[in-house]
Amino acid sequence: MSALSQLLQQYYSEADERMSDLPFYNALLSVEMAAWHCLDADLEAGVLITPWCLNLLWRPADPDSLPEKGSECVLTLASGEYSGVVAEAEGLGRFASASLLSDTSSLASQEQARLLAHEIADLLFLPSLSAASEEVPENPARRAMFRRMMGAGQ
Amino acid sequence: MAQIETFYGVMRRQGITRRSLLKYSSLTAAALGLGPTFAPKIAHAMETKPRTPVVWLHGLECTCCSESFIRSAHPLVKDVVLSMISLDYDDTLMAAAGHQAEAALEHTLEKYKGEYILAVEGNPPLNEDGMFCIVGGKPFLDQLKRAAKDAKAVIAWGSCASWGCVQAARPNPTQAVPIHKVITDKPIIKVPGCPPIAEVMTGVITYMLTFGKIPELDRQGRPKMFYGQRIHDKCYRRPHFDAGQFVEHWDDENARKGYCLYKVGCKGPTTYNACSTVRWNEGTSFPIQAGHGCIGCSEDGFWDKGSFYDRLTNIKQFGIEQNADEIGTAVAGGVGAAIAAHAAVSVIKRVTSTSNKEHGEQES
């Protein structure tokens, strides 16, 4: 777990008490960052479980590259493009959030929520993670030489 | 079928260029939540398909649906869609009046028998044999039944036609009923809202006229492309809800910070509509953005569900249709990787960006 994911989990854990008396609250669940990936140097993303929602969260390395709080933003991954809303929290700055589930009442245990979250994370992130690993060239210097010869990057 | 023009023929006659048609097609594809690759398909259909007449009737209503419809965000949308609609009969928008108008309706129903789409704004009162709503000297109930008899499909505009709305609220002295209580042998596409969003109305009618079929509907008869998600799901204040940050009282500090309006009565968590995505007035705003909670105007019986300012205490009270969230049940029904995988696919569709959707794919 990265420092960011821990901070996010802490941020939502602090909301738990404020949400616990609302009809959206499923007492069988608890706040947990079920999956978290550093997709590349510029982007971290994951799936959060709470007793009141299941969310996709992400943040670029430069949070200020996100539009202002409340704006729509799009996460582009190898698996597709996903739209969410920009959130902002004290001490965290901006990050993006997309609602995966608004009604968690049919999730009967944390284990079920975790299973679902992991499946979602695999579908969302694995193609990006695979592509990133395939992109590591065996001989970067040789690839760079050919790129220069072909005029790329000019 | 009677010989009628293509959409494109009508548009050309009204001075709309092909360039404008292509622009319109792109706008429509976006409004329908389809990928940009769908625009040429719309343009092709409109260039080649004959125009489908639409008869628009008004029962007990306030005309807010018509007012919304003719104020579609893009002028081109309004021009094009209005040119698609046979104004042989629409007692608000047509030029004719009196006996001439009633004759025009009868002529249209006969000429395009079995081919026209019936759009209904408002609803019929059943009490006193329908005498609480008289059109052309006869009960609207009779006009509705007559027009529905040979219609290809029926659109219920707004919450009046879809659910009954305020005139059907308790004690409902006129016994006003939604049109599906009277028309029972035809598919009815419900486009609820008080009024519905202009782009939703033009989007639905364009889809039907262009592709000659009704859009995919949910179990309550609403087009999934616009009513597939709750306002809550895409609300710009949603991050505050998720963080437990609520407006506790009107004009408190939290209101000024733009926190979630759930505790002051917002019905967004139980309301299926496109307000938080399409928005109103050229996409400018919607009630929650203006600082007032959603009143749930597109949900069945919203007038009889208590104060607009009381918080929801039972999130099932609006008769939420289990659609996207059924995945939770699927998981609960049997914990298995295959079931969870299937559920995960359903969930991901909800957050997939519109611009990334496959050809013709709709919300599920």
Automatic annotation (TrEMBL), chain A:
Highest taxon of source: Bacteria
Official protein name in the record: Hydrogenase maturation factor HoxT/HybE
Keywords: Homeobox
GO molecular function terms listed in the Swiss-Prot or TrEMBL record: DNA binding
Record field: transmembrane: none
Annotated family: Belongs to the HupJ family.
Classification via InterPro entries: NiFe-hyd_HybE, NiFe-hyd_HybE_sf
Organism from which the protein derives: Marinobacterium lacunae
Automatic annotation (TrEMBL), chain B:
Enzyme Commission identifier(s): 1.12.99.6
A Pfam family this chain is assigned to: NiFe_hyd_SSU_C
Annotated binding of [4Fe-4S] cluster 2, by residue: H232, C235, C260, C266
4Fe-4S recorded as keyword: yes
Subcellular location: Cell membrane
Entry's transmembrane regions: 21-39
Entry's Gene Ontology molecular function annotations: 3 iron, 4 sulfur cluster binding; 4 iron, 4 sulfur cluster binding; electron transfer activity; ferredoxin hydrogenase activity; hydrogenase (acceptor) activity; metal ion binding
Catalytically driven reaction(s): H2 + A = AH2
EC top class, as a word: oxidoreductase
UniProtKB keywords: 3Fe-4S, 4Fe-4S, Cell membrane, Iron, Iron-sulfur, Membrane, Metal-binding, Oxidoreductase, Signal, Transmembrane, Transmembrane helix
Every Cytochrome-c3 hydrogenase C-terminal domain range: 227-308
Any one GO cellular component localisation term in the record: [Ni-Fe] hydrogenase complex
Co-factor(s): [3Fe-4S] cluster; [4Fe-4S] cluster
GO biological process, one term: anaerobic respiration
Gene3D superfamilies: Cytochrome-c3 hydrogenase, C-terminal domain, NADH:ubiquinone oxidoreductase-like, 20kDa subunit
Annotated NADH:ubiquinone oxidoreductase-like 20kDa subunit domain residues: 62-207
UniProt: [4Fe-4S] cluster 1 binding residues: C62, C65, C160, C194
KW Glycosyltransferase (keyword) present: no
Family the UniProt entry places it in: Belongs to the [NiFe]/[NiFeSe] hydrogenase small subunit family.
Subunit structure: Heterodimer of a large and a small subunit.
PANTHER family noted in UniProt: HYDROGENASE-1 SMALL CHAIN, NIFE / NIFESE HYDROGENASE SMALL SUBUNIT FAMILY MEMBER
Protein name: hydrogenase (acceptor)
Organism: Marinobacterium lacunae
